Amino acid sequence: MTSVDTSGDIKGRLGPAGRAWRTMVLFGLVGTLFWNSCYGEDDDFPLGPMTQFAFYVQSSGGQINSRWLEADTAAGEHLKLSFNASGSGLKRAEVEGQAGLIERDPSLLQGIADRLNQGRSGPSRLTRIYVVHQTKTLDRGRVVRTVQRNQAVWDVR
Amino acid sequence: MNALRGWLFGPVPQARIAWLRLIAYGFLPFDMLLLTRSSLDHAELPAELFRPVEIARLVHLPAPTVPAMYMLLAVVLVAALVAVTSRLTRPAGYVVAAGYLWWVLISMSYGKVDHDHLALVVALFVLPTCGRADYRDQNPSEAASWAVRCIQVSVVSAYFLSSWAKMRIGGPDWPNGETLGWALTRRGTPLGRELLPYGWLLHASQWLTLVVEFGSVLLLVLRGRPLYALVLFFAGFHVITYALMTIHFLPHAIFLAAFLPLELIRRRTAPSKETGTLAETESATA
């Protein structure tokens, strides 16, 4: 049954205090979002700035950088690891966000290898793990050159 | 001043809050078990990789552990189940809001943040302020109006401030650059990669994106069919970005529903003699 108060009175009418704090909260939210959009960075999550795809890529000379994880197994196989966190524990974008830190301290890859080696034994165990950095260079909007290097390498203990 | 008050508190039926709760709390299992499941995966990594974002640092959020994250998952989902059934809506709702914020802060504290969670986080914090709400409760409420406006503002902000960021970071020449080509090269679907040779089309898409994101403020002022058409347009925009590069923005996109008169769903299915007069509330909806 649909219930409606037909008396004309608003049941959910707010008092002055209720209106005041709600108004302040909304203004605070909007103000914070705009402030962070002007001066903030991703560190201000979840209150902006909305930087997704906000960067500029030049048509000629622009670069498309990608980083991901690869690994060697005890059997000599070379694997490209999952881009999802359910694989290595980090998503590709997170690997990219942490690549500088990992390059300075590749031992951080041990924890990722430990996670990946859970349930692996013998020849399938990972013995070496890589952060691979690929750079594609554009000319008039088209990829004309691809360079790939290992940004960090770690021998799994 | 009166116009602002009318806009903020022009009453909305409580029923819309009930539907928005169903959307928000009903979405949480999908979000926590699929979209932000990385909170569980991160817990298995060394604490040295935990790079807490500012709010997490302010509250001294510790690096996650596997038992703590599973416990948090269970608490949030059980509280959401309680809140969605309109029981203990305030305490359960605030447990959900705080718990989910903890969860999503962990998910975003490993080197990359996603920008599609603003509306969901805001919704989880404002919906409990409305108290009990039933799908058939057509009584107008100022508290409901404020909560709906907060969600609407967060949806519009995500669009508008995206374009703002493009101007701030990418500069005024952003639409003529190769950002969309960059995205399609990295994560384009087979369909999306088909577009890579058509630079003019990618540039036109970037111009369109910029215009509609800045124009999203119209969602806050339009009424009736023009508003619903714009909501449909933005929904289509998300469908297309998903088809081209598997970016769905779902935690944000589901709250396009906040612009719709959801309260009419049950009203239309109810017997006519029970629906009553809604002239007062209809003027303030959408």
Q: What percentage of the residues of chain A does DSSP assign to strands (E)?
A: 25-35%
Largest interface between protein chains, with number of residues from each side: A-B, 69 and 85 residues
Shape of chain A: flat
Ends of chain A: how far apart?
A: 67 Å
How would you spell out the order of helices and strands of chain B?
HEHHHHHHEHHHHHHHH
The profile of the biggest β sheet of chain A is: 4 strands, antiparallel
The count of helical stretches of chain A stands at 4
Number of helices of chain B: 15
Helix content of chain B: 55-70%
Q: Which structural category do the helix and sheet elements of chain A fall into?
A: alpha+beta
Q: What oligomeric state do these chains adopt? A: heterodimer
Q: Which bin fits the share of residues in helices of chain A?
A: 25-40%
Mean pLDDT of chain A: 90
Order of helices and strands of chain A: HEEHHHEE
**Average of the residue pLDDT scores of chain B:** 92
Report the sheet with the most strands of chain B, covering strand number, pairing sense and barrel closure. 2 strands, antiparallel
Task: Give the termini distance of chain B in whole angstroms.
Answer: 20 Å
Can you lay out the helices and strands and say which pair or pack?
The complex is a heterodimer of chains A (157) and B (286).
Chain A: H1 16-39, E1 63-73, E2 78-80, H2 85-88, H3 92-104, H4 109-117, E3 126-139, E4 142-155
Antiparallel strand pairs in A: 1-2, 1-3, 3-4
Chain B: H1 2-9, E1 12-13, H2 14-35, H3 38-42, H4 54-58, H5 66-84, H6 89-107, H7 118-126, E2 140-141, H8 142-170, H9 179-187, H10 190-193, H11 199-214, H12 224-245, H13 250-253, H14 264-269, H15 279-282
Antiparallel strand pairs in B: 1-2
Fill in the keyword field for this structure.
heterodimer, A: 157 residues, alpha+beta, 4 helices, 4 strands, 32% helix, flat, B: 286 residues, mainly alpha, two-stranded antiparallel sheet, 2 strands, 63% helix
